[in-house]
Amino acid sequence: MATTPSKTRTTSTTPTITDADLLKRGIPSWPSELRRYSEAVMHDPTLSADYSMKCKQVDGFSDQSYGVWEGIVHPSGVLYYFDASTKTYTGSNVKTCSHDQLSNLQNWIGAARRRLQEDMWYMVVEPVRKEDGDYYEYYCVVPDARIIAWFEDFDANLLFQECASAREWNHKRLELEAQFWKHIDFFPRHYSMQSSDATELRAHLEWFLAEGLTLEQSTAASLFWSTDQTEKVIARLISFESLLDSNNSLQEQGVAFCGAIWNILRHHQFLNYYGLPEARLMRAHSIEGSGERKRNVRFFSMLATAAMFGVPVLVLEHVEKLHVDGIVNMLDIRTFLDHFNDDNIKHSTLAGVIMAVDASILAIPNVGSQTTTRALCSLSLILSVHCIFAGVVAQHFGQRMKSLEFAVRSRHTIIATHFSFKHSNSRSTCISTLRRLLSSIALLAYCERRGIYPTIIYTYRSTVTDEYVFSIV
After folding, report:
1. Could you read off the pLDDT of 15-65 as tens digits, one per residue?
2. What's this model's pTM, rounded to 2 decimal places?
3. Quick one: pLDDT at residue 5?
């Protein structure tokens, strides 16, 4: 009697991903780290143009929603998305995400919500693609407290590094509130702002304007680069106060504008230690304290000083008097370059005069034949040629700065903050950063001569790609 062999069924099980595993892919971030307007948008070659029109086509604007994500157009024109079920925003284009990527994003948001346990808080999530999968930059928004927060402890040095010693909660909270208002600037749709809130903001600006008018060197005068600019901002606030919706709240455009101004105000207070004993009220004040720095004079520096008739000493003393703090001033590139080119011509002329003097000294009998005289004049000639050559190169680069390509590539609008090698992991990184710093010192020296008070910025940009950014506009 034949028997039929029994068949055993094997079932494959997919490993369950826990919330802890999902949350390991979360990266604390903040609004100023969002990549809006900072990344070049590449055209998708797979999408072809469609210039056809249907007969009598008068349809309204099409819905930008995609699944659970509601498409919202910012007053400036950018499109972002909002998931009402999880109260989550994202600036990423969810339409370009695959089904698996969207599913992983929803799973991470669900795990984050279960960890957060705050139904009234909003979240902002930005997926970041890496080789081992997607990571998620995030932060939480607390509208009632006007602050941003996170559901984990982390080192926020990158957020607070613009101040040398941000240690007290009241000081750090200024920057956290500034980031909250930056969020409102980016995502204004669901934030209700009353006319009284705009009036409160206007009261702050009126005081800054009055302070700037009475004290020319006050840090308040530099809030919007000039008192005239501050008056224009106040005028726009008055206009937005009267533009209300059906609920007697500011319209979305007014909310975004007020968010941008509040962000500048709070960040300015954070940079100038508002509410702390070391608050800097005048541009001449320095958080580093008083005291003369001793310059290490080397043999080559002494030789160059003698050869160039003391010019290097004057330049170094001028640079050492620069005051570096949190003040930011608007700098018109075209005007700056025009002034720079004028000074460049003067310096090149001076170098030519020095070369002529050197040649005259070498031609004097019994003077130009001496070894010391020949050495100094030869060195002076070499330095003068180098000065003229550097001026030509700088002038060529200045013309490129006026071009549209340079304006498009520029991502930052300030020249400022704290310089540090804290995050440098290699010698090449330090050398590269130092070269950029030295080039910015020349710009700072010129700005200070023109009565402009900029600051240096060195920013450790990305928490994901470890990218260093040091930029000047």
Report:
1. 577 888 899 999 999 999 887 765 666 676 777 888 999 999 898 888 888
2. 0.65
3. 47
User: Is the pLDDT reported for residue 217 higher than 80?
Assistant: no
Query: What pLDDT, on a 0 to 100 scale, did the predictor assign at position 104?
Result: 93
Q: Where is average pLDDT lowest: 89-93, 398-402, 416-420?
A: 416-420
Q: CA 45, CA 6: separation in Å to the nearest integer? A: 56
CB-based contacts of 212, cutoff 8 Å, min separation 6: 218, 220, 221, 222, 223, 227, 230
Residue 438 confidence (pLDDT) above 60: no
Is the confidence at residue 386, as pLDDT, over 80?
no
Q: What pLDDT does residue 371 have?
A: 78
From residue 110, how far is each of 20, 67, 93, 245, 425 by CA, in Å?
A: 12, 16, 20, 34, 36
